[in-house]
Records
---
Amino acid sequence: MSRTFRWLEFILGIILGFSLALLITWWVAPNTRVLSSPAALHPSFRDEYHLLVASAYRATGDVERARSRLLPLHENDVVKSLLDQAIRYQSGQDVSSLFPQAGMQAVQDLALLAQDLQSTPTPSTPTLPFAIPSTVILPTRTWLPFDLISHEPVCDSSASISLAHIYIGDSSGQPLTGVQVIVTWEGGQEKFSTGLKPEKGLGYADFILTPGVSYTIQIQPAYQAFTGISSPTCDSDDGSTYPGGLVLIFQQP
Amino acid sequence: MVAEVYAASSDLDSANFALAGLFSQTPSSIVAETLAFVTNKGYTQIDIATLQLLANAINARLPGGSP
């Protein structure tokens, strides 16, 4: 009997102790919400924060506000962080739990913000009104059409693959990051953005050419498509031939 | 930031989804709370209008909200 009572006392003690702990932590002295710095964010939440800032930047075009929003992260090289994130997304990492549908848009937003943070901040391109009451007008980013101003073969017999090197610039020749490139061929399509290989230039992108395949390249959706692009045939010293690469330069008029 | 994105895209589903992921409160209550905060703190008219736009859209979708 006494043994049973001892067990009951033990269980009762556990229940009472647990209840008392809940009472104290929930009502008597609850943990007050502490404002933590964005610098303390877990890397995955930091990615979310980057993406939120980049998305808002695309919407407003306010680079100074974007910069001030990124400052509390205390990152040594925020441009590199943004580009790294864009590259990870481009490589297939899940984009975001907050913006699961963002996909390519996320890559573009991050690359665009990285580019504009790096360059001298200037007022954004044409302003477009959106559905805000009264006369409020916020700037937004728009892309002008692009011309293919140079299309040159690259013959390098030591290269193991044929690459199409794409360079995209604005009307003054300055490289443009975050420009979407859509490559289509019979039975396939690939989309990517400039700026994902910053070591080769902010306006650079490339893709592998399969010999004998004709490609169509479009710079930004809804603009002119450049058709009939294919790997050139190069002559080697011994008289044989091999597939070469291309350098394609697109520029805004 | 969510309000700014919504103002440009008019994508209310995405805005609601992002707010639900960021905050434990409902989207309507967090937007209302933030709107009150920015109004009291003297934020710009653009910021207030942007938040108001999102608040109006969220409230319009609530049961009993205006269409």
---
Amino acid sequence: MINNQIKVRMAEYKIGRDTDILITVGLGSCVGVTLYDRFNKIGGLIHIMLSENKKGLNPAKYADTGIPLLLSKMEELGAKRSTIVAKIAGGAHMFSIAEENSSMRIGTRNINAVCEILKKEKIELVAMDVGENYGRTMEFYLEDGEVLVRSYKKGEKII
Amino acid sequence: VSDDFIKRLNYLEKDALKETGNIGAGNAATALAQFLNCKIDMSVPSVDILPISEVPEVTGGLEQKVIAILLKVMGEAPGNIVFVFNEYSIERLLGIVLNSKINMEDAGEFEISAIKEIGNILSGSYLTAINQMSNLNLVQSIPAFAYDMAGAILSTIMIPLSEFSDYAILIETKFSVGKNEIEGYFFLIPDPGSLEIILSALGFDTE
């Protein structure tokens, strides 16, 4: 079987199905959100940078516009909203000394915003690996919905 | 608004930014050469205008383990200064500074302080040169340190800027010490509104 690897850059989302693998590399304070419909084997991955889209910029950059956008695009491709579940990773503090600086607490703010939007959209959050002080890579396997989270600090784990 | 401004930059303005980077980096290289007591080579700076989503890729692999030093630039034209080294280069650089063999995996507070100090010296002399040519009064914050995936570090640096813009401008210089044994990247990333201020301080009409 051919696995089709699809890269998702920062402020982007991608949708795949069946044997596709959606990958986002190097999440720092950004948050990666996977959405998965296991019955139709359709999944989406979005790499979110910020919580709120106040200026009408690229919707995929923000939790409040990106997650609803990804949901509706998945539905267009046949995903059933009531079966979609979410997993998230990222939201770290990358710089030890800059914790006082509010701009560096963005990780925590992003995690909170993503959780809030998922709740509002009535999407169940089934797993997460967030916070702390290290970068992460996510590999989202659409065959079974498993998400591999890789980091230098903690190695590999499946969520 | 700032996106339009970045995209409208003409070649003269880009050249002026490149020259600013050149003078800044030249001064920084001289300071580092004196500190290390060896020869430093520098590339001609490039001025890159990129979608922010592509910035984390500028040093090569997103997942490559790198050492980064971040200094906030404060004053009339705020922004960020970022240094990126690979492990091999920083170990060699520290070897020269501390006169001993260093393994980054075992690096403690002492080694990290030395790395931050290198960042301080480089960015201080870079900003001094820019201040002299522009009459701006830019100062640097204390350095912050990270040792992790290049993508995770650079993306995090870009987040505050991305709140106002989908594009970024990077003034990039590559420098090397000795026979390509030590290589590093130096970036000046002005905040969206700072570009106009820098250019008008250099005598451009940015209206």
